Recover the amino acids of this structure.
């Protein structure tokens, strides 16, 4: 049985928070430890939306990157040809 963790907006907000905050750094370390232990980390769509919305509102998000394997819903937003052009 594989283990996975669902991140809520609180921990995800901390992970994306300023590096000078001790609680944000502790949360990042916790997340890195999970990943190093082979735990799969998942973020529900609503959590992703809430955190991105707050980052945009606060002016802390200038680039949006979407990493997902569930691309069926993306065709409603952007033509599939555009997603194929994305490179990292």
């Amino acid at each position: 049985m594989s283990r996975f963790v669902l991140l809520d907006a609180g921990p995800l907000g901390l992970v994306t928070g300023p590096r000078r905050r001790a609680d944000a750094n502790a949360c990042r370390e916790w997340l890195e430890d999970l990943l190093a232990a082979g735990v799969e980390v998942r973020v529900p769509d609503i959590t992703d939306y809430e955190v991105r919305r707050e980052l945009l509102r606060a002016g802390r998000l200038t680039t949006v990157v979407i990493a997902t394997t569930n691309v069926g819903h993306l065709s409603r937003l952007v033509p599939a040809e555009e997603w194929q052009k994305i490179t990292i």
Notes: The helical segments are 9-15, 22-36, 45-57, 80-84. The mean pLDDT is 76.
